[in-house]
Structure formats: C-alpha cells, structure tokens
Amino acid sequence: MPWIASFFYKLLLSALLSALLVGCGRVPPPPGDTGELVVLTLNGPTTYFLGTDDEPMGFEHDLVVDFARQQGWTVRFVVADSLEALNERLARGEAHIAAAALTPLVERIGGVKSGPVYAQLRQWLVCGPQVVTPRSSAELSGLRVEVARGSTGDYWAQNLRPTSLGRNIRRMDDVLPGELLERVSHGLSDCTVSDERNLAIERNYLLGLQSVFEVVEPQRLAWLVSPRLDSGFIRLLQRFFINAESTGVMAQLHERYFGHVSRLGEVDVLSILRLRTERLPALKGFFLQAERQTGIDWRLLAALAYQESQWDTHARSFTSVRGIMMLTEQTADHLGVVDRTDPRESILGGARYLQELRDALPEGVAEPDRTWLALAAYNIGSGHIDDAVHLARKQGKDPYRWKDLKEVLPLLSNPRIAASLSHGYARGGEARALTENVRIYYDILQRYESVQPAGGSWLKRLLKR
C-alpha cells in the first residue's frame, strides 16, 4: 500500500532530523532561559504528522504550538520511535514535555510529572474480521493479541486475572497504534487495544475492525513533564488548558481533526477504495487540470465528485442535476458548461464553482472553515448559507466557524423557521452531511493518492490555523 511506504519514509525522516537536532542524551535548558520548548511526540493521525506539504500538523501539534506562542517561545518537536522510547527519553530529561495523547501512568516512569488532564478516551479491545468475537478477557486464550509496550493496553495485559492470560499477550516494541490496527485488519494478529479516537480514524482506511469491549475505564489524557522542570511550569500548563477550554480552542481543534471521522460505514469505505482503482484513473487528468486552473487540491475536488456522483459521469438526481459534479442547468450555464455529462467540462466547471463560493465568503473567514462552508454552499447555495449565518448569529454562535454553523444547518428544513428566512426552506442537514463526508473522502484520498506540486500553496493556506 503506497501510503505505508510514504508514512514510514516520513517517520524515518523525522527521526533522523530529531537525532541531528537534539542528539542522544542532550538535556535542553529550561524554555524560560532559551525561548525554545522541546517536545517529544509520536507520529500518528491523532497527535503529530506531516501534511501534504511536509508541514507538521495534528491535534497535539497545534495545541503545543498555541501554548508555546502564548509564552513567547518557539517549539522543536522530537519524534520518538515508540511509546516506550518516548517515556525513557522524557525521564532522562531530553525534552521539556511529551505530548502524544498520553495516559499519565507517571508512577511507572521515573520522576516524570503529569500535566493537567485535558480529555478522556475509551480504550477498546479491537479484533479483526477473522476472529470469533470474545465476550470478555477470559475468552482471549488462543488469540494472537498484540499491544504496544508501555501503553494502556500493556498496562491492562499485565494486570489481567488470571495472570496467565496476560503472559500470552505479545508486548510489541517500536510500534505505533496505527500499525497494530493495520496488523489486525490484515490478519497478522487477531486483536489489539486502541483508544476510540485512533480507532475511528483508522476505520476509514482499514476494513473489518471490530470494537469488542472496553478493557479499562476511560483513560485520562495529559502532557507529561520532564522531572527537571519545577511546579511553576505545571501552573503555566494549568492556566493554558483552563483558558483553552473556556475560549473554545480545544473544541475548535477537536472539530478540525476529529469532527468528521466517524460518519462512514464499512460499505462506504469499501466502495471508494474499489472505485478509486476502477474509475478514478480515467478522471485523474481532469482533476489535475482543474487544480492547475483553480489552485484547489485535486484530491478535494475528487472527494467532492465522489460524494456527488461516485465518479459516474452520467449520474442524475431527482432534481435534474447531472454529471460527475452534479451541476444544475442554471449553474452549468453560468459556468459555460455545455455538456454536463462530459467529465472534463463538469470537473473544470465544478472546480470553478467551488472556487467562486470560497472567494465569495467574507475576507476574514479562515481556512479550513472557508472551504467547509463553501462545500455546504455547493450543495444548497450561498443564499441558504447566508440564512444559516443569520441563525447562528441569533444563537450567539460564530457563524463562520464550521463547528458552529453545522449545528444550525438542519434548522433550515424546519418549516416554522424556514418561513422567516430570506431564502426559505433548504435541506440543511443534507449540506452538513455532504461536507462531513467530503472531508472523510478527502482524508482517504490524501492517504492513497500523491499530492501534485501545483496544489502545495493552497494546501498550506488550508491547513494552517
């Protein structure tokens, strides 16, 4: 699978860079002295990863950068090879903090302190499609169960009763959560332990993953702090997290990275993976041409086209929209599209239309919210989005943040509310579903399809906060 090679290449590159920058065993001075915060992390979709421009991003990455910015510090991330290595390096004081969706089992890591708890995640036993589903830990005998050494799953395995069960569980070194789930999906092992967030993301790429039962109570997440830093640093973290919660920063980051990940069923994933090889190759050139004309990543355009038509060039709906981009006759006339069933015309026209919708939003609307709002407008039109903006304002929400606007979109189909709106009734819930689905399809295509140079500058604007 091409994304695996790319993933491990970037992981290796990050590790090599980290080694050059930090050096084994080097202890950084306190960040207050140097103005630089050194952070240990792990590579993964819920923590820290390189985007399509090879630019770091991720929930933990963005949160750390915001914390450092408020202190007037820069950040240097060091990617550890495994959870166990991360714990050991932090205990040696090689970084100031570790941020990687970590459970503060600090009693097992010499001298390391726990920062404030900022989230809780359920921990699931996850088994593959080939497994007769165990109903409890007592039925694990004979199954190939793998956990990452030093993880919550490892902690659970070591405390199983009877203890003989735990001895049969393989404790894996130098693995990341996504790798263990991939091994389960492909039948290389039977079961593993995963938190609910990783599982939700990986289910959009890996097939047959069954969440069987919760192995422990929901686990708290916290940043871990070097034993070399004093209580004053912990107080800085406490103030930051309190402020991040009260100002909505945590909610905004959660929406950005996880707000869309649980919409698809396995049938949806199977379908796009199959049609990606059957239909997309013949259309890819048109999407690339549209990217060159508009600057919009061709994979986002392909994700939108898949949502609209499943890449069927002759698709038609009950409302008489037609073609791979499902354009109305009026929109096609506006865009100069003569034949909506011509894939090149339809794709180029749909890309220009999405660009127009993005450009029409107020200048201060930031990415990626600008693009998500434009996708919703692609479905129901800018006028109905204006109505949703009006409703959001009345409810005290930020109308130009997708997290807030998507909460009011379904109200457009309420007859009582629609009667008072400038543009009347609209299927707002459908627009919300379209946008969330496109976000997931875009994630899938980013994992399996390579970026083209022409899309880099647009993606950088899209993914920056």
Sequence-ordered SSE layout with sheet pairings:
Elements: H1 2-22, H2 31-34, E1 36-41, E2 49-50, E3 56-57, H3 59-71, E4 74-79, H4 83-91, E5 97-98, E6 113-127, E7 145-148, H5 152-158, H6 163-167, E8 170-172, H7 177-185, E9 191-195, H8 196-202, E10 210-225, H9 231-246, H10 249-258, H11 266-278, H12 280-294, H13 298-309, H14 329-335, H15 343-360, H16 369-380, H17 382-394, H18 402-408, H19 415-418, H20 428-448, H21 456-463
Parallel strand pairs: 1-4, 1-5, 7-8, 7-9
Antiparallel strand pairs: 2-3, 5-10, 6-9, 6-10
> What is the correct CATH architecture of the largest domain?
Orthogonal Bundle
Strand order of the largest sheet: 4-1-5-10-6-9-7-8
Indicate the CATH class of the largest domain.
Mainly Alpha
Distance between the termini: 30 Å
CATH topology heading of the largest domain: Lysozyme
Query: Largest sheet, if any?
Result: 8 strands, mixed
Q: Could you tell me the number of beta strands?
A: 10
Give the number of domains: 3
Sheet-strand content, in percent, reads 5-15%
Shape: globular
- Mean pLDDT figure: 85
Low-confidence stretches: 1-24, 454-465
